[in-house]
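quick one before i forget lol
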Amino acid sequence: MFSRAIRPQLEEAARRLAIVTVTGPRQSGKTTLVRQVFPDRAYVSLERPDERKFALEDPLGFLARFQGSVILDEVQRAPDLLSYIQVAVDENSAPGRYILTGSSNLLLMEGVSQTLAGRTSILHLLPLASTELFGRASVDPWHLDTPLKDAKAPDDAMWSTLWAGFYPRIHEAGLDPNRWLADYQRTYVERDLRDVLRVVDLDVFERFMRLVAARTGQELNLSALAGDAGITQPTAKHWLTALRIGFIVTVLTPHHVSFRKRLRKTPRLHFLDTGLACYLLGIPDPPTLERHPLRGAIFESYVVSELIKAFENSGREAPLFFWKDRSGHEVDVLVDLGSRLLPVEVKSGLTVASDAFDGLRFWLGLPGNPNASGVLVHGGVESYVRSGVTVLPWFLS
């Protein structure tokens, strides 16, 4: 069982508020986490047909069973229950009274945001960070430009790690990633999306997901994506929004503060789990990934997902953007830390060539830019400072 970095945030939230909602993609470890943190509380899974029927037909009777605190798992299966929980906590707002978990689909997020606004802390549990997988200290996203001391590579090879992905079940049970991810994809599409998106032709949606995976680490052209998938642009936008809410993909928007005119305004797409992206791309094993034309883009998406997890595990939304001008100069990630911007460049090679710093040097040298440091994450294992840029290994910690 993995130690999850978000645990202190969960414990602190339960001491403050009557309701704590833990959401995230299916199989990210939500149930395991809450039962580990709150072992003495009553637990009910609304996946069980009898419990779900009870909650839907007699919500007051269902809630009256629990005199103390309770964990309600997969609460999106009975969304109307949220209104009754709202009334209950308005009458008795004892901290940590309800611990809710649910996969991040449109029904759950709409119910939580509209019904429990101001009454709940919402924590996003994503699949494992590499630090959780390797049992290391969490990445500090606020001080990313601090070189590692005595960096020691994990036993797992980089391409094997990225190919397997970061869903806990794969690593806990030693499962074949290809088989497990095939089942995951089928469950996600057929169970979570059929009802929410009213998808009629599941084959078309699966083709859409594979086309999205092929665009990871690239600028998003929604019109071209819709055309390749054989769907309308509004449909493509709607489906992509569902993938974003479900923590399957994320989109980095261009940073709004510029030190140079004529910036490109197209967002950049990233798959949040490299293993799922590899499965959708038909990459059968780590050696194939290492030779694949999209290996650099997949590695970049891995780094983006690691940064998002680091911020989410610290209880903050990840302030990530990217920067590119019309002449082709770009920075893969801009981290907006409030008092400063931190540029991050990503290179999948084992060694760092001098031209790997070109994008960072150009951005840092823009007239009027007060920022003086940057980060380069590479596929090797060394960490050092070069020309004011902190070089970090692929495992980041």
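fyi The longest helix spans residues 177-197.
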